[in-house]
Amino acid sequence: CIAYLPPECRPSDALLFTVSNGNLQARVNVKTDGCIEWASGGRSHGWLSLSGIAFTTGLKERLDLDRWRNYGDVWADAKYSCTRGGLVVYEGLIVPHDWDGRMFNVPA
Q1: pLDDT digits 0-9 by tens, 21-78
Q2: Within-domain flag for 46
């Protein structure tokens, strides 16, 4: 692990993020035990951007998937949350039925 999150900041399900390593992309996993780990991709530039890694630890609502499905395993199901400040955060790993079709519906 490149870092550990404190218990109150850990996700309820494992999450994965695509981050920058210069002109390369890398994958970073955030595990339920708080472990932040480089998983794959670029690491040749001597640095790894953590920008863009964001998730909420509070109440989340399941997304109504439209012909897509949750990936399963240890990865988070499709969910969203809306913070008091109006920030909407989506998370989860989903598998396509049809790349041209709608992924999910968000309640109005």
Answers
A1: 999 999 999 999 999 999 999 988 889 999 999 999 988 889 999 889 999 999 999 9
A2: no
Structure tokens at 26: 């890398």
Contacts 24+ apart (CB under 8 A), 87-90: 89/54, 89/55, 89/56, 90/63
Whole-model pTM: value is 0.86
Which residues, at least 6 apart from 32, have a Cβ–Cβ distance to it below 8 Å?
10, 11, 12, 13, 14, 74
Amino acid at position 24, single letter? L
**Buried b / exposed e along 38-66 (16+ C-beta atoms within 10 A):** beebbeeeeebeeeeeebbeeebeebebe
Pick from 58, 12, 49: which is nearest to 34 by CA?
12
* Domain assignment of residue 59, given as a range: 3-41+51-105
Q: Which amino acid is at 74?
A: V
